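Risk register update: the risk of archive-format incompatibility is retired. Evidence:
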Amino acid sequence: MTDMTTSQEPQSRRALLADDDHALRTLVGQIIHSFGFEVTHAENGKRALELYVQAQGQFDLLITDICMPEMNGCDLIREIRRRDQKLPIIAVTGYAEPELTGELESCHVHLFEKPINFEALHTYIDSLPNMNNL
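Archived output:
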């Protein structure tokens, strides 16, 4: 009889989550983890960019708040886009003004307004190309 078990773990998806609100970052992190992601937390855009560089860009998803101290989400998105045009990015904000929406669309970023509809977020993440192959 052949043993069909394997010692290899399935490849984990990695998400970088940037939000200055600790409670919200923790909640979103737990939910994203339940979607099958290993989550790396950052308290602002500057720290998120440092973590991105340290990991040599080895993330499958970036979720960032827009309004944060030190480096806001828009600046973080611009810096990430300079390095990686294909990384799926989700922006979260409570203040979706038309100018912001246009800027995010031009950077190929999907916007979710607060309060976040987590079912819609899960559906969106699952719809991303290659997200189910990881």
